[in-house]
Amino acid sequence: MLRFLTAGESHGKGLVTIIDNFPAGVKINEDFINEKLRLRQSGYGRGARQKIETDKIEFLSGVRGGLTTGSPISFFIKNKDYENWRDRMDAFKPVQEESKIHTPRPGHADFAGSIKFGLDDIRNVLERSSARETASRVAVGAVCQIFLKNFGIEFASAVLSIGGAGIDAAQISALGKERQAENGSEEKAPSEKKMPESNCGAFFSSDANLFDETIRQNIENSELRMPYPEHEEKAKAFIDKMKTEGDTAGGLITAKAKGVPVGLGSFTQWDEKLDAHISMSVMSIQAIKSVEIGAGVKSAYLKGSECHDSIYYNDNGDSDNKEQRGLISNQTPLFKVGGGFYRKTGNAGGIEGGMSNGEIISVTCAMKPIPTLMKPYLDTVDLNTGEAKKAFLERSDVCAVPAASIVVESALAFSICYFFLKKFGGDGLAEIKRNYDGYVKK
Ligand SMILES: Cc1cc2nc3c(=O)[nH]c(=O)nc-3n(C[C@H](O)[C@H](O)[C@H](O)COP(=O)(O)O)c2cc1C
């Protein structure tokens, strides 16, 4: 079973990560991993910390001569900022009473974390609960992506909106109104009912095809990782406003996986379901507050006839949706690669019954605004005295949604890799390739 563990504090010496049960013989591309780490550090609205750090992966074990050996992979990511925190973060120097923090920030792990562990200094909680830990997760996701590339599986992610500026997040309310109109409880329905179908099988415009070359370029060129340049100005203006006001911003993120074979995950047990695993991976990211697969919340407003993705088959492999076709086993003559089943819409987000169905896997999630504010808006109390206080200020991001989109993509990559290895498992790449080829039977 593929698994990973992370350790390390935000201002400690660095982050240590162990990936266990990763197959041997996978060629590791350090530049690919470091580029993902760079992207996690970038984005309009980030704080001063990112100017100090230049994250780089340093492998400690499990990789030799550029190839994984099958032994546990461990790696280190240095915190350059440690030099500024040496005294306060030293393993043995006594902690100065006056440096201790007793006022928990609403929205952070401070309150429950210090009560749970019986700690009299909130720093012991915030150092570990900080999203600095996501650098480890991005590196793990990048290693998983490198492996999955061997099987034609690709990943992409983007920011859909920030503070409501961006792709029409109000589609839900539009649909709700439409339903109300049909029920006679609302006078006028919105004029536009359905979004045009895109070549990724999207029913909703929020389901942008991130694998389209123009959109991919847009995301790459955008400081906010947004797919459509026309949204960027409004979103940046919102971040600027939040900065001026000492406030913070959240947003909507999407991540997708393409080329995933049919049948990863299972319907047979609750904890074997691919969508459940992805949800846990993504929800465990700091500040992520919702996870949707495919149409997600919007499904609640659709009729069954609108929601479910009809199934089509093309015998000669010339379907109008070639890229979408699943890799299918050789159980019957129909089940072959080079002609196959496909859908025209993607409301299921590529998962039915807890299993991948061969379509693009699509996840959307909401990130809440950063809980550390630069102005004392939020009330709190001193945990020692019960005295009313304002939440403390600490150097922080105004908006980290673009960075979080890379973390979400990485979490998705880990979940897909976990189930891929479960299905095609073997100790080395060559063995896994044989298993995979046997299943998809070219
Ligand atoms: C990439 C990224 C960067 C973040 N940066 C900050 C930050 O600078 N300041 C802050 O207070 N929270 C930041 N957060 C969010 C907190 O880590 C998070 O809200 C906190 O750990 C509590 O967890 P919860 O929001 O999941 O309940 C960031 C989150 C992510 C994903």
Unreliable stretches covering 5 or more consecutive residues: 187-203, 317-339
Q: For the largest beta sheet, what order do the strands appear in spatially?
A: 8-7-9-15-10
Helix content: 25-40%
| CATH class call | Alpha Beta
Please give the number of β-strands: 17
Which CATH-level-2 architecture?
Answer: 4-Layer Sandwich
Assign the CATH topology.
Chorismate synthase, AroC fold
How many domain units?
Answer: 1
Instruction: Specify the overall morphology.
Output: globular
Ions, cofactors and other ligands present here are: flavin mononucleotide
Oligomer: single chain
- Cα gyration radius (Å): 23 Å
What is the average of the pLDDT values?
Answer: 88
What is the CA–CA distance across the termini? 27 Å
Question: Main sheet?
Answer: 5 strands, antiparallel
Description:
With 442 residues, the chain is α+β, with helices and mostly antiparallel strands. It has a single domain (3-309, 345-440), classed as Chorismate synthase, AroC fold. Helix content is 32%, strand content 17%. The chain has 13 helices and 17 strands. A 5-stranded antiparallel beta sheet has the order 8-7-9-15-10. The protein has a 4-stranded antiparallel beta sheet with strand order 1-2-6-3. The protein has a two-stranded antiparallel ribbon with strand order 4-5. A hairpin with a 6-residue loop joins strand 1 (3-7) and strand 2 (14-20). Helix 1 crosses helix 6 (134-149), helix 6 (134-149) packs across helix 12 and helix 10 (274-283) packs antiparallel against helix 12. The site of flavin mononucleotide has 21 residues, from helix 12.
